[in-house]
Amino acid sequence: MRVLVTGSAGFVGSHVVEALEEAGHDVAGLDLRNGEDVRDGAVLDRMLPGVEAVVHQAAKVGLGVDVADLPDYTSVNAYGTAVLLAAMARHGVSRLVLASSMVVYGEGAYDCPRHGRVRPGPRVAGDLARGLFEPRCPRCGSPMASATIGEDASLDPRNAYATTKLTQEHLAANWARETGGTAVALRYHNVYGPKMPRGTPYSGVAAIFRSALEAGRAPRVFEDGGQRRDFVHVRDVARANLAALSGGAAGALAAYNVASGEPHTVGEMAAALAAERGGPDPVVTGDYRLGDVRHIVASPGRAAEDLGFRARIAFAEGVKEFAGAPLA
Ligand SMILES: Cc1cn([C@H]2C[C@H](O)[C@@H](COP(=O)(O)OP(=O)(O)O[C@H]3O[C@@H](C)[C@H](O)[C@@H](O)[C@H]3O)O2)c(=O)[nH]c1=O
Questions:
Q1: pLDDT, tens only, 28-64
Q2: Residue 17 pLDDT more than 90?
Q3: CA–CA separation, 253 vs 250, rounded Å?
Q4: 3-state secondary structure of 196
Q5: Burial class for 52, CB neighbours closer than 10 Å (0-12, 13-18, 19+)
């Protein structure tokens, strides 16, 4: 297939390009680093003729918790996707794979012993400052056990980044309905791996820990380090994109978790990276970021069933490689 990858020079995008080429696809790339803006319809008009599918990775990423960030996130993620979809319609491109994110869920799922499956709201500063990190049942205050989250869970985007990621899904669903196109949204969990951007506020915790260790500093673990995440290796994420190119159904958007199915705590990630690099040992600070979710544990079953995608790189193996791999 002739495939256009947007964000092709980025962390995930560059691995996607490699995976698609290895599978024999004819890949074109578009990236801001090469002066190509997805919001520029004329650029798309030049690149889309002959393209059969678009894999849309270009986005403004990061935490996006500052209201001042809203215009930029909306412009790049929401408006950029709208321009891309309109151009795809003009050129009769009928297949889209979209990089979405687990942030569309907000907090993870929990089981209350009295009320069953619960989706708690944001944790409050007062509780976090007192070290009360685990969300309690909003109805009865009982402690809850974290549970896996599936694609049918209610969506609860809580910041600029999350809101524009969900908007991208809605726009893609609209495009699919109107044009009969096929859209697959991949909700990435915590992606890590070679070429991850060096520790900036915009990169994930694995890169931030890795950068600290490289500089001889101890990784600083927030809360008590018990926050659960699904760390999924970037080459597995690239394979998920490849699988998504032949998934989905005409006229609709299908959304999938892209996850390893093997949750680990943030403390485990810090400890494993520090052990691989020979220290320094992580420091558990008790600090917290307001707006962070406590646990988000993915159910990877639907992607396995519908797309045949199963992550192959286990945590121990992936972290061992990442500890010594190049960062961007
Ligand atoms: C930066 C940092 C985070 N943490 C904790 C906070 C969280 O509980 C946990 C995970 O934090 P983060 O990796 O920042 O991600 P996160 O789990 O909040 O996820 C979000 O993060 C964005 C970077 C991505 O763009 C988003 O798509 C989304 O994945 O690690 C530390 O303990 N130490 C640190 O130095």
A1: 999 999 999 999 999 999 999 999 999 999 999 988 8
A2: yes
A3: 8
A4: coil
A5: middle
Distance CA 74, CA 289 (A): 23
Instruction: Using the atom order of ligand 1, give the atom closest to the CA of residue 288.
Output: 6
193 three-state secondary structure:
coil
Instruction: State yes or no: ipTM above 0.95.
Output: yes
Residue 201 has pLDDT above 90, yes or no: no
Atom number of ligand 1 nearest to Cα 191:
29
- 161 CA to middle of ligand 1, Å? 13
CATH number among 3.40.50.720, 3.30.930.10, 3.40.50.300, 3.40.50.280, domain 2-324: 3.40.50.720
Q: What percent of the chain has pLDDT over 70?
A: 100
Cα of 146 to ligand 1 centre, how many Å? 18
- From residue 100, give the alpha-carbon distance in Å to each of 132, 137, 188, 203: 30, 28, 6, 16
Q: How far is the CA of 4 from the centre of ligand 1 (A)?
A: 29
- How far does residue 250's CA lie from ligand 1's centre (Å)? 35
pTM of the model: 0.98
Task: Provide the residue ranges of all domains of the chain, joining segments of one domain with +.
Answer: 2-324
Note the pLDDT tens digit of each residue in 116-170.
999 999 999 999 999 999 999 999 999 999 999 999 999 999 999 999 999 999 9
Nearest-atom index, ligand 1, CA of 285: 32
- As for ligand 1, residues whose beta carbon falls within 6 Å of it are 61-63, 101, 103, 190, 204-205, 208, 220-222, 227, 229, 266, 289, 292
Q: Cα(118)–Cα(164) distance, rounded to whole angstroms?
A: 25
